[in-house]
Each structure stands twice: as structure tokens, then as C-alpha cells.
Design goal:
6-stranded parallel β-sheet; 15% strand; alpha/beta; single chain; 406 residues; 16 strands; binds nicotinamide-adenine-dinucleotide; Rossmann fold; 8-stranded mixed β-sheet; 39% helix
């Protein structure tokens, strides 16, 4: 099929390369000229495992452009543009702009417009008014750091449509994944995405509150609690990692947008609101942990990406931590295997540790596991629980969710 992708972020690129690998011809459109130019020269704008290799291997079937008219005879076009939160509310301007431009260029009335961006319920209905063509809501659940894998092997494919035929086309497109397909209304599909992300955020905030309590109790380790409750299949072990809190390009904006959307509809999502509030307290808590061991000096922050295996620093808790430490008067240096930041001087891992008075682990990159011997004599805060506490010097070590060991 001739498949258009509008918006070449991680979602658009992962969708594009995976469908190209399936033999489809892809036209990727973005308004960012530099990004398009880079992609044309074979440069991936982001670090994402296997993305560069997939771009290279499927280059003959992918074209990048800023020109929407190249989409005029597409069989279907995915909208994968950003949907940021502005003043606590979802901003849909990019989605509507893409829809408007598509309505100007689509020549065939059987071209299908597929919304993959995360949008509040009611958006597909509005897009339909703009484009006239069939609109399908096909929310994306991929995780940065395993975007390609998740696109090839999603847990489920959600297809919200009014037209059965248009829904069938999108269902056939993703059949190769082998994933269960859930056919829904537009509004259900849009709601599923927000409910899923909010639930995951709630799970993390829940275990973070349990972690707070564990820190007050002798010989109490949240990891033992989390691992054991996770063995109950009704609870499951995922997203029960206590730490510095959730960040990134999705959870913060999506929970916020969902809460505002609910309020606009005359309802409260009190549990989601509480999860956001708990998440806000994570960084100040870790700063206080450091203060109990060191009141001034130089701090090495290990990790600036919002999670491992990506260079994405959007809403990264590590960046929030760096800013908070500086506001408290600490000097900050940072190291990350892939991400870069303006907030702290970036140095090598070795320099970061050796030049500082204290170390805080802020992102759980594998590279930071096994550093116990190196960090034993330093003040260390393990805000992501990657170290073995039994190998650390108790008087210089604090970890999220770890009570005093007696
Ligand atoms: P991104 O911000 O990294 O990229 C979006 C791209 O869209 C940018 O390159 C931007 O230049 C482009 N764009 C904006 N307006 C445009 C327009 N009118 N025409 C063409 N291009 C335009 O976004 P992302 O992280 O890939 O996320 C895209 C959507 O998918 C968002 O709604 C997000 O919530 C959702 N989502 C993201 C993830 C994730 O892990 N990042 C996972 C699931 C869903």
C-alpha cells in the first residue's frame, strides 16, 4: 500500500520503518525541514535501538519530504504529530493543522486518515469534519527504548472506526503483528489510550508511596515488597519499580490532559490527580535524602534521559533533579550514555564520579549496574535502585524505599 506518515517523531518513524519492512511504500512528511533533510541523508534524528538500521535497510521504500502534496494518492495516512499539554490541557493544533493540510491535498475519497497521536475523546470526530475522508483511531502504545520491537509486536491493536471498511483496511495492515485486535468506537479507542497510560502512572506512584513508608521502617525494602506483590497475577510485576518518578514525553502530559478533559466533562479523576501529586514530590524527596548526607559541594548525576535506551530528555526527572540541586546551591556534573543536556556540565562516567562529592543515580541505564565497588566510599543516593545495598557503606548510602538496615 501507499502509506503516508505525518509527523516524524519516534512514533512516526517506528511506524514508517516497520511498515516499509512489510513491503509498503512510505512517504514521511514533517514540517521540520532540518529533520527531513537529515533523514534524507540517512541520519536518524533520535537515538532508538535498531531505528537507524531499519531506516538504512528500508531506504528504497521510504521517502521523506516537507511537501504534503506527495500524499495526494496515498491509500492511508497516519497522523503521528505531537500533542503537547499547554496550560494543563491538550493542545490539538498540530493534529488539526495536519488534518487541514491533508484535506487540501488528498485527491482520492477512499484515502483513509488514521490518527495515531494520543488525543482526547472527541478528536477523531472533529478530524472527520475537517478531512471528509474516513477516519480511524489507532492509538499507539509503544515504549521509547523499544519502539521498533513494540511496533512489530504490540500487546494489542486498537482500531476505532465508524466505517467498517476503513477499520478492516487498518486491521489488515497490522495483521502481521499477530496481536489481538480490538474494534471499538472512536471515543473508546481514544479513551483506552488515556486510561492505559494513567493506570501505569498510578501503579508507579502507588509503589513510590509504599517506598516512602518503607524508608521509615527498619529492614524494610520496597523492592522485596514490590517483587512479592507482583507475583500475584492480579497485580503483575510490571511498573512496580520505585524510584525518582515518571517523566518522558507521554505520562506527564497525558495524565494532565486526561484530568483536565475529565473536569471539562464534569467529572474528577481523583486517583490520577493523586498520582500526579505523588510524582511531583519525588525530586524534592531525593534532594532531601542528599541533604541529610551532604549540604554543599559537587554532585554527579548519573543519567539525564527520562529512561534508559533513549536520548529523550523531555520531562526527564533527572533534569528536574539537576535543576533542583542547583537551586539548592550544589554544583552539578552529569553523565549519560546517550542524552545531552544544557542543565549540567557533561563529562565522562569516570570524571563524573571522581570529580564529585556525591553521586545520585537518576536513570537506570545498565551501565550503572555493578558500580558498587566504585561508589562504596562515596556518598551515594540510588534513586533508581540499580545498586546492591549490601555492597554499599551504610553510613554513606541512601536508596529509594530502603529502610535502615540493622
Ligand atoms: P514528537 O514530538 O517526537 O514528533 C512529532 C513530529 O511531528 C515532530 O517532528 C514535528 O515537527 C511534527 N509535526 C508537528 N506538526 C506537524 C504538522 N502539522 N505536519 C507535519 N509534521 C508535524 O512526537 P512523538 O513522541 O513521536 O509522539 C507523537 C504522538 O504519539 C503524540 O501524540 C504522543 O503522545 C503519541 N505517543 C508517543 C509515544 C512515545 O513514546 N513518544 C508513545 C505512544 C504515543
Amino acid at each position: 500500500m501507499r502509506v503516508g506518515i505525518v509527523g516524524l517523531g519516534v512514533v512516526g518513524l517506528a511506524t514508517g520503518v516497520v511498515l516499509a519492512e512489510q513491503g509498503h511504500n512510505i512517504v514521511g512528511v514533517d514540517v521540520d525541514e532540518n529533520k527531513v533533510e537529515g533523514l534524507r541523508c540517512g541520519r536518524s534524528p533520535i537515538y532508538e535501538p535498531n531505528l537507524k538500521e531499519m531506516l538504512d535497510a528500508n531506504a528504497s521504500r521510504i521517502k521523506f519530504t516537507t511537501d504534503y502534496s506527495e500524499l495526494s494518492d496515498a491509500d492511508l495516512v497516519f497522523i503521528t504529530v505531537s500533542t503537547p499539554t499547554v496550560n494543563g490541557r491538550i493542545y490539538l493544533g498540530y493534529v488539526f493543522d495536519a488534518a487541514k493540510r491533508l484535506s487540501d491535498v488528498l485527491r482520492r475519497n477512499d484515502s483513509i486518515v488514521v490518527i495515531k497521536s494520543t488525543v482526547v475523546p472527541g478528536t477523531a470526530r472533529k478530524v472527520k469534519e475537517i478531512v471528509k475522508n474516513d477516519v480511524v483511531s489507532n492509538p499507539e502504545f509503544l515504549r521509547e527504548g523499544s519502539a521498533i520491537l513494540d511496533t512489530k509486536r504490540p500487546d494489542r491493536v486498537v482500531i476505532g472506526s465508524q466505517s467498517k471498511e476503513a477499520g478492516d483496511v487498518v486491521e489488515n495492515l497490522w495483521r502481521f503483528t499477530g496481536a489481538p485486535v480490538i474494534r471499538t468506537s472512536w471515543e473508546e479507542a481514544e479513551m483506552i489510550k488515556y486510561a492505559a497510560n494513567s493506570f501505569l502512572a498510578i501503579k508507579v506512584s502507588f509503589i513510590n508511596e509504599i517506598a516512602n513508608l518503607c524508608e521509615r521502617l527498619p529492614n524494610c525494602d520496597v523492592n522485596v515488597v514490590a517483587k512479592t506483590i507482583g507475583l500475584d497475577r492480579r497485580i503483575a510485576p510490571y511498573f512496580l519499580n520505585a524510584g525518582l518518578g515518571w517523566g518522558g514525553s507521554c505520562f506527564p502530559k497525558d495524565t494532565q490532559a486526561f484530568v483536565s478533559f475529565a473536569r471539562d466533562m464534569g467529572e474528577r479523576l481523583r486517583i490520577v490527580e493523586a498520582a500526579i501529586e505523588v510524582n511531583r514530590e519525588r525530586v524534592p524527596r531525593v534532594v532531601n535524602m542528599l541533604k541529610s548526607l551532604l549540604t554543599r559541594g559537587k554532585v554527579c548525576v548519573l543519567g539525564v534521559a527520562f529512561k534508559p535506551n533513549t536520548d529523550d530528555t523531555r520531562e526527564s526527572k533527572a533534569i528536574e533533579l539537576i535543576r533542583a540541586l542547583k537551586a539548592e546551591g550544589y554544583e552539578v556534573v552529569a553523565y549519560d550514555p546517550k542524552a545531552r543536556t544544557e542543565e549540567a556540565k557533561m563529562v565522562t562516567l569516570d570524571e563524573c564520579i571522581s570529580s564529585s562529592d556525591a553521586v545520585i543515580i537518576a536513570t537506570e541505564w545498565d551501565e550503572f549496574r555493578g558500580l558498587e565497588e566504585r561508589l562504596k566510599d562515596k556518598i551515594t543516593i540510588d534513586a533508581r535502585r540499580v545498586l546492591d545495598p549490601s555492597k554499599m557503606e551504610a553510613s554513606k548510602f541512601r536508596a529509594i524505599g530502603l529502610g535502615v538496615q540493622t
